[in-house]
Amino acid sequence: MNITIHQSYLPHDDPDAALAFYRDALGFEVRNDVGYNGMRWITVGPAGQPDTAIVLHPPAADPGITDDERRVITEMMAKGTYAGVNLATDDLDGLFAKLQAGDIEVVQEPTDQPYGVRDCAFRDPAGNLIRIQQIQ
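^ VOC family protein, sequence as received from the core. Prediction below:
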């Protein structure tokens, strides 16, 4: 049996800002952009990896959550504690320089971690933590 990660989900609170970050800053392909009832779900992914994607979704679209839960989600997104994803690149310093030159919140500059990876961190426009590590 083979199991792969096909899609992961990150919330957005501004679809155009999310699109600019993932498409323009990170260089991801836009694979789908679906609107429904004034909300948008945007699927993006790295070029050359058609089976791996991130779905950027409206965080409170689930009809099963309460107004209090929506409020908590909004507060956690504003603090940057709601969601995140780890990415990898073969040119961490080059990617960091590109992202830093834009209007993107830097959380951590490239650092050699004591657990053996070199990585950096940013926040996307919704506050999601994006960690990027160097691969050999």
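The two ends are 28 Å apart (CA to CA).
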